[in-house]
Amino acid sequence: MKNKLLILLFSLVAGTMYVSAQTDTFVVKNAATTISVVPNNSWFYLREDYAVKIKFSSKNKMSRVELKGGTVTLRDSVYILRAETGGEAVLVVYEKLKNGKEQVALSKTYKLFGRELPTVTVDGVPNDSVADQFTLIALGRLRAKTKFGNQVYQVDSFCMFFRNPKGFDTLVSHTNQMTPEMKKRVDAIDVKKGGGVLIFERIHATSPEGKDVELPPLRIFLSTQSRIRFGL
Known about the structure:
This protein is of the alpha+beta class. It has two domains: 34-113, Immunoglobulins (Immunoglobulin-like, Sandwich), CATH 2.60.40; 119-230, no CATH class. Helix content is 20%, strand content 47%. The longest helix has 23 residues, at 2-24.
């Protein structure tokens, strides 16, 4: 009888342990969506490309990326953000759920700042000013520098327009200096007879950060004071 009671007691204890083991069992849910944006800056410049890498980890798939207040372009797994106007832009990353619906997985706000464009000069003469014809023929170098930040931009190329009987001729320089043909055409201009206006356009320069920037056109009025002084 005593042995039967021991067996019964052992069975009850074993059964209790089994129930307890079942109660302690739990299921771990899938980790939440995690997204990182590299670099993790809070601002970028207006009208300039800003490249970011988006790292997405989730049981769902990333469906699309948009920039409210600008555009997003995917190039070789890097997203190029570009904002044209406004004070802020919002980067939004969407993920697609199993039922096919989209939801916002990330929303990141950027402050937008306009970069100071440099002032373009030719031999130190700014836009809508008078330049000496003889100096342009001798030198003819375009330079660009910001007024307040004193940042120097390297002028890489530009165009000059010359009037002909049928319209205009376009000459191109792939440096910051006027080409020999440009100088020859400037030398042939009769300022006293027909006046002299030079137009420099499509001025491309490299910013201190190494980005290509198109600068505003430059208009110069020719003067012949040096030629008169030297009897040319």
